[in-house]
């Protein structure tokens, strides 16, 4: 890589070693834990200096940002790209600086028995954090949370406030996830001196900034650091295996209780690991598969230590869904019953806020998913906010949880350095999402160049590592029907394949889809004998464009293309096809390119979440599929399933 590209990255330190330190429990309030959200307006400055290093040279973290130059107001959470009127900021590559002064409750700064933690839900892509000018943590990767224990800093002086500075660099290199390259334009007859652009091999805008909640939370100094729960079922008895990690002391008592939705204790135990047994357990069922989907128990954990001032306890409550997942040669089973994925691929993407987390958008999206009769989605092409997965748990929307391994196409991105980082990201992803019943499968990558020779070793290692991290879930990666050799497919449990017949080739010739799609399925199944998910298919439609007979980009063409796919899917789902996920739930922003009209228009909803004609077609289909593939009523119950619970 050109040395100046490294200059754009600045003092980027590469994480090494695969052992993750500590847990990453979602910060929940409890009798022993408080939260302080830092959303709202932060001070902001992009470092437009030629080498992007001025902020480090002038140590902008040492004093309030306003003292080192002009600042902008920047909302958090949000991407910084689309909130302003500045074209250069929209496409900025390099370091941006965020800062926020926080007033802390007195107890947090004076009670030495309180631990104060700063948690950043997501900072895309590389982040360095200072508190009161002191470096506290760095993190690589834009889609997973990271934390710093800042107790000592905020408890060391008379101050009741602290200043948080976060420098974030959005540069992508062949070794980041997703990868990218910096292209230096050196022809001075065409470009100014030092001109460079970020190049990527994925089809979405590289939004950047503080995308998810930033918050402070407290725990006692002896605290519940991590919980791992796995579940199984033995003849109607739910088995909940738990393992709890405590930090801060070696002498403590640990009690756990499992409560049902009425608040009744159904099982209890003591000690760091054990098994809770729940006779006649309510299982966690996907949406539309059961009359009471998404049943959640609460695992209450309490750890108590003796201190000079008496006993001190830390409490944490984890939602627990009891369910099983298995894969056979032809089926995907949830609670021992065949499950058919009828759902969508999404993006975290919306007007103005870019990839920024937004509750209103989240609730709207879940209302649309339920209206559509979707029972699943894939977190294409990176891990989504934890709040999204919490709603999936509560509504029974099944998730294929994908890493940011998208656009891995350069040979350089298959070296050891990239692999080490990818292994580490899978570690962070599993650590964060392992307890969500909605998550039924890990996806390590989307459309990697899996035909390149090093891809075999890369995916073998990556998939084995992911299975070792979590033996309870199957693993996949998403391939493309155009790839003739797939060196990763032998290692996955489920084949996920994307295809764009009559869109990226055979333009307008919808009639070739049945043959080409059937051939795709037959070839993949013959080669691997594994269940297959049509993990992407779709067509672009510009809302309001109508043409009949259909032509590309009209709403009619999008509908007609889907119908051709559905005919084949209906045939093959009798056999080994276990799911279909439309590309895409909603229109989304991409880089500018002649084949993109203000972004990718393959959404069945617009970017503003209004339905195109295809949404109604898919709605009919999904509700019908729900009826066709639902669980047969259990003996002695579920009568309402028979009486047509599911209707559009
Ligand atoms: C697929 C990619 C997806 C793209 C889609 C498209 O997985 O990210 O957005 O193509 O071109 O191959 O619309």
UniProtKB/TrEMBL annotation:
Keywords from the named record: Glycoprotein, Glycosidase, Hydrolase, Lysosome, Signal
Domain Glycoside hydrolase family 2 catalytic: 325-626
Signal sequence range: 1-19
Subcellular location(s) of the protein: Lysosome
Activity control mechanisms: Inhibited by L-aspartic acid.
Entry annotated with the keyword Signal: yes
Domain Glycoside hydrolase family 2 immunoglobulin-like beta-sandwich residues, every copy: 222-323
Gene Ontology CC: one annotated term: lysosome
Annotated ranges, domain Glycosyl hydrolases family 2 sugar binding: 36-220
UniProt-listed GO biological process terms: carbohydrate metabolic process; glucuronoside catabolic process
Reactions performed catalytically: a beta-D-glucuronoside + H2O = D-glucuronate + an alcohol
Subunit structure as annotated in this protein's UniProt entry: Homotetramer.
Family: Belongs to the glycosyl hydrolase 2 family.
Purpose: Plays an important role in the degradation of dermatan and keratan sulfates.
Family matches, as NCBIfam families: PRK10150.1
Protein name, per record: Beta-glucuronidase
Gene this protein is translated from: GUSB
